Amino acid sequence: MVSQKGLLFDATLCIGCGACYEACKERNRLPTTATHFLEDRLSDQTYTVVKKRGGRFVRQLCMHCEVPTCASVCPVGALEKTAPGPVIYHEERCIGCRYCMLACPFGIPKYEWRKILPRVRKCDLCADRLAAGRPTACAEVCPTGATKFGDRQELIEEARARLRAHPQKYVPRIYGLEEVGGTSVLLLSDVPFERLGYRTDLLREPLPLLTWQVLQKIPNFVIVGSVLLGGIWWITNRRQEVQRREREERDRRRSFEESSRDLPEPPGSSSTSDLMDSP
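The structure corresponding to this sequence follows.
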């Protein structure tokens, strides 16, 4: 059985050096930006950022949800939650609908707006490194251990141990343990998480589960709605077909009348004017 991996970020240990930011850029072959790394923001060319908020340095990256909403809304399965933990992206399947961007409760996926064949871009938790038994690039270079890589369950136990050892130091909560069903990226902080820019209004239940529950309770509505939409489609197409046939009939009549006027009179025939002028 594959053990699920994850990250534990401790805001009390982060010194804002930007090593994780640079390591992510190097690993994913992303261009550097003109702005200072603390002023950068998530984009199709930046998968993780470091911000100073609430008097602390804090990271922002894909949370790799246990039941990812981005994957549940994708109509072609371009996003997938894998057994080792990462939510990965299959660019060959993507049709560019961008539903994942709208559905993500953390606002993570970004789009390559400037490219002819754009893709969705985000952190993939260094899935290739995990497959080779290596830690994520960001955790490997962190000089203070603020970003720690390991088995998700072991990281949860580590976070709980820190909370027990220093109850007056930390907010008594592991962010990501229960939010939207849990995430592979976990956070500890000594200041309220909302001051760090993290949403604290999220439900504990996975968002896709709520959607499935609602859909199960309204099958009649779906059926009636489908029939109604089908009827509208049939009426619209029928009207267009009738109009097309009427146009074709008018065109045939006009063509026949024009060709009839151009036909020569048969030999020996006389026009009405010639008969009136004869003695």
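The first helix runs from residue 19 to 27.
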